[in-house]
Amino acid sequence: MDSTPFLTGQFLLAMPGIGDPRFERAVIAMCAHDNEGALGIGIGDTIEGLTLHDLLKQFEIEPGDAPDTPVHFGGPVEPRRGFVLHSPDWGGQDTIDVDGRWALSGTIDVLRAIAEGTGPAKYLVALGYAGWSEGQLDSEMARHGWFNTTGTPDLIYDIDAEDRWAVAFAGAGIDPRLLSNSAGTA
Q: Which Gene3D superfamilies match (predicted)?
C-alpha cells in the first residue's frame, strides 16, 4: 500500500519563507496528483491588466453577458496556456473531474460556453499552472514548503484572490500571522 497521501481536490498553501518568490502566499487548487507527478492551478494571484474579456477578444469570441473577471496567475509552467477551474455542472471535450469538488478544462470550448451563457455556473480563468515531476511535490511537502487543506470549493469562486491565502489558513484553524518562516529540527 502506498503511504503517500495524494492531494487531488485539496488546496496547497505556501508556507511563509517558502523560498521561491513566485509562490509567496500562493494558493494552489490541486487538480492531479499521483505517483507520476502533480498539477495545480494557482488561485491566489491575478495578472494585472488582463481580464476575461481581453482573453475572449484574443480568440475573437464576443464576450456576450460574461462578466469581465480577472485572469489568475495559474503558475510558472506554460504561462501562455489557459485553464478554467469550474463547477462540475459543465463538461467539454477535455474536462477533468477533480475529486467531485470542481472541474478543470483547458480548451477554447469552455471559453465559448462562458461567453454564450451556457458554460459552468461558477468558474475561474487562469494562465499557466504549477507542476511537479514524480516525487517532487512529496519532497517539498516533507520540507517546510507547503501546507495542504481540504477547504471548500467556495474558496475558488467566492473569496477575492488576495484574501484566499489567509482565508484558507483560517479555514484550517490556523492564524498565518503566527507561522514561522523557518522550519525547526528535532
A: VC0467-like
Q: pTM value? A: 0.91
Q: What confidence tens digit (pLDDT) does each residue in 124-158 have?
A: 999 999 999 998 988 888 877 899 999 899 999 99
- Would you say residue 184 lies in a domain? no
Angstrom CA distances, 73 to 32, 43, 149, 178, stand at 18, 7, 20, 27
Q: How many domains in the chain? A: 1
State how far Cα 124 lies from the chain centre.
9
DSSP E strands in 62-122: the ranges are 70-73, 77-86, 96-98, 102-105
Which helix (H) or strand (E) segment holds residue 114: the answer is: helix 108-116
Domain annotation covers residue 4:
no
Per DSSP, the three-state class of 70 is: strand
30 close to 11: Cβ distance less than 8 angstroms: yes
Assigned domain for 2 exists: no
Tell me phi and psi for residue 85, to 5 degrees.
-85, 135
The whole domain housing 64 covers 11-176
3-state secondary structure of 174: coil
Mark 158-177 as b/e (b = at least 16 C-beta within 10 Å).
ebebeebbbbbbebeeeebe
